[in-house]
Every structure is written in C-alpha cells, then in structure tokens.
Amino acid sequence: MEFCSKSTLDAFSDAYSSCHLCPRNCGCDRSLKAGVCGMTSELRISRVGLHMWEEPCISGSSGSGTIFFTGCNLGCIFCQNHEISRRLSSGERGSSSPFALPGRPYTVSEFADAMLSLQEQGANNINFVTGTHFVPHIIEGVRLARERGLTIPTLFNCGGYESVETMKMLEGTIDIYLPDMKFFSSDISNKYAHAADYFERAKEAIAEMVRQCPTQEFDGRGLIQKGVIVRHLMLPGLLFFLTASIFWIIFVKRTGTALRSA
Ligand code: SF4
User: pTM of the entire structure?
Assistant: First the structure.
C-alpha cells in the first residue's frame, strides 16, 4: 500500500481488521476474508469513466467522473449494477468461472491517478459509487489526489445503508453526498436487501450528511459544488412507502428534529 503515511496505514488496518464500516457490523478481519460486502481489504474497482446521465447538476454537459467499486454492503435483489458490483455468474461478460469478480485491484496511487485522469477528461466531479466498504481507501486516495492536483468536488454516491461513524470519517474528504432512500418498511427492506433496519440507519446517516453539508452550493453553470441530494426508490406497488419517506425528509427539512436527535 504505497504512498500512505504511517498513521493512515494504522487507520486502514484498524478499520479493516475488525470491520464495522457499515451497519452489517461483520466484525471480520478483512485481511483474511471478505464480509457481507464481498470484499477483502484489497481495494478493487470495477469501472472508471465519465458518466453523462447522472442528475443534470452532477453530470452537466461534460460528465461525472464515476469510480464504481467492486462489492456492495446492501445487495438489493433488484440491483441494476450487479454485473459490476457483485460476483459475475458463469457466462456473464465472458466469465467462465462462477467465482470471477468484476474489475481489478488498485493501489492507492493508481486510485489517485484514476481521479486525476477523470479530471483531465473534463469530469465535473469525482463520483464514488458504492464505496462504503472502501472508505479508508477513499480518504487516503483523495488526500493523495489533492496533493497531485485534484481540484474538482468529490461526491459519495451510496445506497443509504451507512453507519454514522463512517460518514463522520468522510468529513473534509467529501463535498457532495448522493444517498438513496430505498425503503421505509422494515419488512420490505428485509425482503429485498436483508436489511430490516434500513430506514433507521439511512435516516441517521442522511442526517449526518446534512449536518456536514447543510446548504446546497452551485457554480455559475448550475453544477453542484456542495450539498446533499437524496434519491428515492419507486418500487412497483409500494408507492405509499415512497410517499412516507418523502414526508420524513420534508419533516426533517422543516423542523430539524431528526438532525438534532441523530
Ligand atoms: S463494510 Fe463489508 S465487511 Fe465491513 S461491516 Fe460492512 S459488509 Fe461487513
């Protein structure tokens, strides 16, 4: 793990030696085995490229610099990214092995260079997609990329099933949060993502994101520079729950109650 300071290396080993980076709280030593997210402590990335189809204030006309991490701590059964986030099944994308993982390992230095390459291609921001299980690497990677000349905002694009402590680690590293709010009912989140506590954890995590970024800031082109954007999931037949979660966010926005209690 090159280019890391001693303290960062210590923080990496602490975070991965008994992993509680997300609400799954596996507690496993990821230098030895993977947790529910499917990833060991080796940084692995599935795809790096410009993404033209995020929200207009994120992609703009020149694109968002997306970095898709391999693995996921949520694993929804309807995932649209499963080919690049989870194990490839036999025959997918040319894989002949049922155990093939998408992407490849990256050193922290390669990771920082990938961000700089996206900036050179005109990216409006660096968009970390499903990076919860690699937060220590993201912190060190951004630090190194900033040292090497990264100037565009960073964005944490996640499923919403996050721990407050891990979100606090990102303060000062991330400029924009883009969490999902997928489920309101614990029965539904348990059925589709094996995460009965999804709404409680997402609620606390989003409150922490808003604490860090209480206002939205845009540049002269209308591109977001700082703030929080919550994405809602519309599941067929479950619009009531979508409405309930929207009402919760409006309530938080107007009263600040959930923010203060989190
Ligand atoms: S990040 Fe992975 S190993 Fe760590 S607690 Fe979450 S699912 Fe488990």
Answer: 0.88
